User: Which sequence fits this backbone?
């Protein structure tokens, strides 16, 4: 894998991706942050050697390099998921490439369902811990020690300083930012009533189908990591209604201005 990562990184360097400081992964319905970036270079995923290609219609497929708040950033406009048929190594390949390009910090966004019924759709949740329910690990492959420790410590996968800054920024800007535990499932089907009850029992505040693999790999690479969820639906098993995916996308879009404020301000502070 190291050979492939080097090939990809060399290609991107030739395209002008010059020593980014911060990597950003934009989740479902959260692509508008790119409008805040002074773009220097952008490349479609399907043009990048060894890169997966986004297959979900509401995920764009571009890697963008530019400046925001005076910092050099590399942005994934659209991510990859296990439910698209990829392996965990595929899903996390871009994080390894961003690490090779030189990022020190990874900021992640996603859309998720609220298990904690004190949280409402359209609100944001700062992830303070997670539960991996995807059935595997992105570190479970031969040669993983080439990239760092195989047995990665996950006692504090989300950077405490970054999370403290997010709290402060949210308070300053009157943004209602919850904190909680994110459970990552395989998907793509949504959960049954019984599954929502189980998730609540084991301590999840929100559930989604991404993020955790990227966080695990970022920790292996010793990156500073933070992640924020947009809560797009309320997962009340006693009053469960069929989910409308278009409504989820609309709810993500509604919360996007607050997400952009959080991300711009955190980037300024790094």
Assistant:
């Amino acid at each position: 894998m190291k050979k492939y990562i080097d090939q990809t990184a060399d290609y991107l360097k030739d395209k002008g991706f010059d020593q980014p400081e911060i990597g950003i992964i934009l989740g479902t319905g959260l692509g508008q942050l790119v409008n805040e970036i002074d773009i220097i270079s952008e490349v479609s995923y399907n043009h990048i050697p060894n890169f997966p290609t986004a297959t979900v219609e509401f995920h764009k497929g571009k890697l963008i390099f530019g400046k925001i708040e005076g910092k050099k950033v590399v942005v994934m406009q659209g991510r990859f998921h296990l439910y698209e048929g990829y392996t965990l190594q595929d899903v996390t390949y871009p994080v390894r490439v961003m690490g090779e390009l030189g990022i020190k910090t990874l900021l992640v966004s996603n859309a998720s369902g609220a298990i904690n019924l004190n949280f409402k759709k359209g609100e944001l949740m700062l992830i303070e811990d997670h539960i991996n329910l995807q059935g595997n690990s992105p570190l479970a492959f031969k040669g993983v020690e080439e990239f760092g420790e195989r047995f990665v410590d996950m006692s504090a996968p989300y950077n405490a300083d970054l999370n403290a800054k997010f709290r402060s920024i949210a308070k300053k800007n009157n943004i209602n930012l919850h904190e909680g535990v994110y459970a990552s499932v395989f998907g793509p089907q949504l959960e049954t009533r019984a599954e929502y009850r189980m998730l609540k029992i084991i301590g999840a505040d929100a559930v989604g189908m991404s993020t955790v693999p990227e966080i695990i790999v970022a920790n292996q690479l010793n990156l500073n990591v933070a992640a924020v969820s947009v809560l797009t639906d309320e997962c009340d098993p006693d009053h469960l209604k069929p989910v409308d995916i278009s409504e989820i996308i609309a709810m993500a879009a509604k919360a996007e201005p607050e997400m952009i404020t959080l991300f711009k301000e955190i980037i300024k502070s790094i």
About this structure: The two ends are 30 Å apart (CA to CA). The chain has a mean pLDDT of 94. The helical segments are 2-14, 88-101, 160-172, 193-201, 212-220, 245-269.
